[in-house]
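So, is this right?
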Amino acid sequence: MKKIKIGKYTLESLTTGMYVDPYVLYREYIQNAADSIDKAIIIKIIDKKDGKIIVNVLKDKREIEIIDNGCGISKDKVFSVLMDIGNSEKKSDYDKGFRGIGRLSGLGYCDKIIFETSAAGENIKSSVVFDSIKLQELLSPGKYENLELEDVISQSSNIEIDEEKKEEHYFKVKLINVNKKLKLLDFEKVLQYLQETAPVPYDTESFEFGKNINEKLNDLNIKIDEYNIFLCNEDVVTKVYKPYRSKLVVDLKKRILDEVEDIYLDVIRNDLKDDKLVALVWYGKIKLYGTIIEETLKGLRFRKSGLLIGDRFLANQLFKEERFNGWVIGEIIILDKDIIPNARRDDFEKNDDYLFLMKKLAAIGEKISNEIRLTSKRRTDIQKNSKDKEANRNNATSTNSISIIKKIDELISGIEFKEGVFVKLEKILRKYDVSDEKINNILEDFKL
């Protein structure tokens, strides 16, 4: 049987062609770090509370580092794990990254990528260096057309071995000379991206209901996928939390302050498959004044293994009007191992389990849509009634004013024929709650 050739341009499709948003590189490297920490916990190298992922954004140096203290990669597996393409040993029902292509995500955004790792119990540090400039040269159309994918990888990379302390265990990704135009070194933008995307905990000081969500997951005997992730630059170290908080600013024009008073929790099970757990859905109970202003908060969002799938718009399809997804905050936490993110992680594979989930979610979306419409109608009716009452008050005031003038005219017409006209005028004015100052002014005018 003839050997199947894999063309060199496949690599481009698996890097910049696969990942349109450059920020995705943070997600890809963090999910690999999270998998390594999970494995380290299982083999009892570390406790869960001690696992950490450090993201260094060094703007002046134009460098990015993602470092974890997970199990690392043993020296005899470094070549196959870091050099093979799409040949991962990870499993989709447990691991977050399982297709074996995510580590390539940074190749199009810097001059060089260095992977450094050491496994516990080994006194070896292995380094794999990918030269992105060389890689781009080898991928140039019209040049090196005889090269296959394997040739391109081998000619643009090399492996180095150094000594390391035996007790050390880690994996580090280092991006050198990062493209400045892509804003990948903007600390605040990176922080926002990680808050929305990474598997991090709720900040229960600003969003107390995070405790309720975790308690529910514990009741369901579900592993809570959250990690200690720290974003650092030359001056600052920030622990990353999900962006949720109880106080929200809504309505673009009025900028009204709303507040999450409670949360709705809904467990979805598949009654066709032995009541299998499918998802946990939560969303905030708020007054629904209008669309939430802050992009980091608004919308129901899909998560699998703690990671955001897609963006805030992915759940729009669940609502009667897509804009209604911007009126709520919440998450659809996928618990079913058979609901699998696609390669880009911007949606899910369209299998029967996914279709079952979407049918159940559509019912929740319809419920929220009805709540929004009913609340908006009530608010409109209240405003209309308020305007009607104001109009009636104005009409009554106008009628009172006409009545006063009429009485005064009657008095004036008989001023030469009747006694005590000033006393009667004063009584009429007081009857209609005219102030003392105005009464005195009116009487003085008549006396003149």
